[in-house]
């Protein structure tokens, strides 16, 4: 995972979790015109995308995000936006009681308990960074 940061860290936090085939930086540039106001925007390159390394699992991706947020002391989050693949991480963040999420917007939600096939296909797709 690679974490892009835009804006002043003192401003409300917005976390952008991109879908497959889009980097966090690409998603930031797509969403920027719609984010009115001053925010600290955290946009992730998930494994196999952008500047990130290989994809291991959604749990590993979430652990990396959580560790970053805890290290920075970012527990109050204004908005978590997740699209497609990003929803799996966003859902974990939304359900983590350590964080106060004011708004969550999940687009193209694919939430399925024990989605073994989906998890393994995703893992195989992004095992190696090109």
> What is the subunit arrangement here?
single chain
| Largest sheet strand order | 1-3-2-4-5
Content of β-strand: 15-25%
CATH class: Alpha Beta
Q: How many domains would you count in the coordinates?
A: 1
Number of strands: 5
| CATH architecture name | 3-Layer(aba) Sandwich
The residue fraction in helices comes out at 25-40%
SSE-based structural type: alpha/beta
The CATH topology: Rossmann fold
Q: Span from first to last CA? A: 15 Å
What is the count of DSSP helices, taking H or I runs of 4+ residues? 4
Instruction: Tell me about the largest β-sheet.
Output: 5 strands, mixed
Please state the CA-atom Rg, rounded to the nearest Å. Answer: 14 Å
Fourth-level CATH superfamily: Alpha/Beta hydrolase fold, catalytic domain
Which segments are poorly predicted (pLDDT under 50) over 5 or more consecutive residues?
A: none
Name the shape in a single word.
globular
Q: Overall mean pLDDT score?
A: 82
The SSE string, one letter per element, is: EEHEHEHEH
